[in-house]
Structures are given as structure tokens and as C-alpha cells.
Fold this protein.
Amino acid sequence: MLNLLLMVLMIAALGGMVVCNRQHRKSTKFQGIALGLLVVVIASGGMFMCRLGTLSVLGLSDITNDDSIDMKLRSAQGYVTANYIHNSLPAQSKILLISPQGNSVFDRALLEQLRDSGAKLVVQETLTQEEKDDPSKLITPAADRLAEAGSIDAAVAKHPDAKLVILAGISPSGESLKKLKLYSLPASRRPRLVIIGLSNLTGWVEKQLENGFFDALIVADLTKSALGITELPDNPLEVFNRYYVLITKDNLRRNRRFFHHQ
């Protein structure tokens, strides 16, 4: 709403400047009015650009409000994930974080929270996709998900002593999870899985929680959208409780509304 008002103000001021420019020969007072309207145009335009984050893109601002909100939301997820792991896993256990290379802001927040919570051994692997030899070859969604699953399996195989694996930033559809080979491992060798950011909560995902293949999910509460917010509390737990949910086998019954069955 404020952006619309700023735009209307800019247009009105510009229109006024045009009128004053045509009338300045009749009276010098129109020159003063035109100058005042120019100040209004510059001020309202600057505010409009700030709200859109344009100044940040131009390098004139170090951080936008949206950046601050995003960091608080990511830190809140990291805080709750770290505390859940701290309370459910022995301190000496090895933890493996698998996430895309572009997920660095979230990774730093999560790794910091894990170490602050007492985790002694945390390693990280980048979620990558296999490069195709033939650049003209069509990469279908199915092939893309298979590559993602292969990357996860390879990272897990590289750290067979990891007791818990955190998957962050995988495809929100979760289709790659169905293709993982680690399900074939015996329970004594299979790491616990904590998945962050999954949006397609199907009956299959629900069943994996029930059967113990998935240890926990960190999901957005879609009934409490964070879009358009301009301020968040400093307490990460309070932020998390506003916009996210931690779902485990123990609290699955009261959170079944988040799952859909086809």
C-alpha cells in the first residue's frame, strides 16, 4: 500500500512540475513551487527504491530489510534444528549436513547453532548434480531428481560413520527422496534423516516418518505466511513458532493436517 502511495505522489509531483514549467513566465513563484515538487519527486523516489531493495542492487545499501528478515527466518530454523539434535543425539555423534552450494547463509547459521549446542563433529557435503557429457541432451525432471538422489547417496557413503544426516535445500517436491539407496541399509547402519524445507508433504513422506526412515521434518506453516512482514522478534524460537513446524514421529498425530493424500 505504501509503495502505491509513493508512486502516486511521484506522478502527481511530476505532473505539477510540468504545469509549473509552463506557467513560470507568468510568475516567478511557479519556479519555487517547481523546485519544491522536485524535492518531493527525489524523496518519494528514493523511498520507493529503498522499499524495493533497488539501492542494494546498485551497491548503495549494505543490507535491505528483506535480507534481515530472511536471515532471521533461516537462523530460527537452524536454532530449532540444532536444539532438536542436541536433545536427541549423543554429543560425540558425527553429523553430516548436505545442502546446495548456494545455501551458504543458511549453512553458516545452522553450523554455528549446531556447534553452539555442543555438537563435536559436524561435516558438510555439497549437494551436486551429475554433469551431462552431452550438453544438448535434455535433462528431464526425472533425471534431475535421480541425480539429486545420487548426490545424497554419494555423500552418505563418504561418511558411513555419520549418525545423523541433515538434508537442506533439496528439491521441495521431495521426489528425489524416493530414489535414495540408503533405505536398503540395515537399521544399525542407516543414519537418521532430518529434512529441512520440504513442501510437498505427501502420504509417502508421512509413512517414512511413521516407519522411522525420516527422523524429523522442518516445514513452513503455510497458514502463517511470512510474505510482506517488515519486522521479526530477536528470539529465534519465537520466530520459528510463528512460521515453522518441527514434525517428528512423536508429534505426527497432531500435525497430520500438513500432509495430503492423493
The two ends are 39 Å apart (CA to CA). The first strand starts at residue 94 and ends at 99. Confidence is low (pLDDT under 50) at residues 51-64, 132-139.
